[in-house]
Amino acid sequence: MSTTQFPSNRTLTLERTFNAPLPLVWEAWSQAEHITNWWAPKGMKIQVVEHNFAKGGRWHYIMPMPDGREFVAEGSYQEIVHHEKIVTSANFKPMTENVVMHAHFRPEGDKTHFIFHVVHETEEYCKQQEAMGFYNGWGTTFDRLATLLEQ
């Protein structure tokens, strides 16, 4: 696991243990056909437009909204350490832009400990994102991942 220090006033963090081995969790994060089954809050669908899981590779997902608009998620992979961490820039338009996501993975027997940090440009922006539902949105997204992993 990385010893990177995250600025506490600009970082939102979620942590959980998935009831699945690390290779399976990694596969769910790294392969587009699995991402379509979990990378969106509960009740939303996702379309993978682009998914180049490599350092410098881009990802671009679209989530259709009930009102007909599209929620666009995109970024580029800055660092990938196999079975350890994924670092990517991220924009979630129209709500969130210019954040950096850090996903850390650690095996714990037949389970996987997961820590997710999202670093924002300013403290104010971080507080705004938290108030807009960061923990609920990502929480339900990771609930969907947990369900997928247990199937």
Overview of this protein structure:
With 151 residues, the protein is α+β, with helices and mostly antiparallel strands. It has a single domain, classed as Alpha-D-Glucose-1,6-Bisphosphate, Chain A, domain 4. Helix content is 26%, strand content 42%. The chain contains four helices and seven strands; from the N terminus they run βααββββββαα. The chain has helices spanning 22-30, 32-35, 123-131, 134-150; strands at 11-18, 47-51, 58-64, 70-81, 85-93, 96-108, 111-119. Strands 1-7-6-5-4-3-2 form a seven-stranded antiparallel β-sheet. A hairpin with a 6-residue loop joins strand 2 (47-51) and strand 3. The radius of gyration is 15 Å and the shape is globular. It starts with 10 loop residues before the first strand and ends with a helix.
Give keywords.
7 strands; 26% helix; seven-stranded antiparallel sheet; 151 residues; alpha+beta; Alpha-D-Glucose-1,6-Bisphosphate, Chain A, domain 4
